[in-house]
Write a structure and sequence with these properties.
single chain; 10 helices; 0% strand; globular
């Protein structure tokens, strides 16, 4: 699947200096919806091109920042598709017909379990969990989570994820001036897998801090 996607996207890199940012936004919006498109095939090469100065501004730092911003906003746009889709059609329709639009029942069920276990912050946590990232917005929509809070948590999670992938591509750009599109994706995936434990540990700390703050806030409201 990844190889097929790489073949179809690779040609766009040749014109990245013209419309690279728009492409990042568009592809990350697709990735964040119910269509399975690995974010690694978008953000890692974009980070590499940013380091090489081959995007619009020709400045590595500026281009990397805009890449992350476009990736984050694209992810929010795609998440809105799932959020409002879930609110519109409801759970029975998703379970019955979701498989026809790339929503696997077992993955959707897992996304619901995570949402029920962790609550609204799972829209942040879920953005950093492989296989669940693009589906965590569905249970948020079904529960009619407040849109502003949904947007905030989605932006935080998507922003961190896009920054991680962009940094990996940026780092690979500092190691070698020449890599094929496929080499970038696979080497970047290897780096991600080797260091994913740190992302997981970071998530544990963030959730623990959030739970503690939420408990203290709720406790103070009861006292008042």
């Amino acid at each position: 699947m990844t190889d097929l996607i790489i073949e179809h996207i690779e040609w766009a890199a040749a014109n990245a200096h013209i419309w690279g940012f728009i492409l990042v936004f568009f592809l990350m919006a697709i990735e964040s919806s119910f269509i399975p498109l690995p974010s690694e095939v978008v953000m890692i090469p974009a980070g590499f091109l940013a380091y090489r100065g081959e995007l619009t501004f020709g400045d590595p730092h500026a281009d990397a920042f805009i890449v992350i911003l476009c990736g984050m906003t694209g992810s929010i746009a795609g998440a809105y598709v799932n959020y409002f889709l879930a609110r519109l059609v409801g759970r029975p329709i998703i379970y019955r017909y979701g498989k026809y639009v790339f929503i696997k029942p077992e993955l959707f069920s897992r996304a619901e379990e995570i949402f029920l276990e962790f609550g609204e912050i799972s829209t942040f946590v879920g953005r950093l969990i492989l296989g669940i990232r693009h589906l965590i917005s569905l249970p948020a929509g079904l529960s009619r989570m407040p849109l502003m809070k949904f947007t905030l948590f989605t932006a935080l999670g998507a922003g961190i994820w896009c920054a991680i992938l962009t940094w990996i591509g940026y780092y690979l750009g500092s190691l070698s001036a020449e890599m094929t599109y496929a080499q970038l994706v696979y080497k970047g995936n290897d780096i991600l897998k080797d260091n994913y434990i740190w992302i997981f540990l970071g998530l544990v700390v963030i959730v623990a801090v959030y739970a503690m703050i939420h408990h203290l806030v709720m406790r103070s409201k009861k006292i008042d």
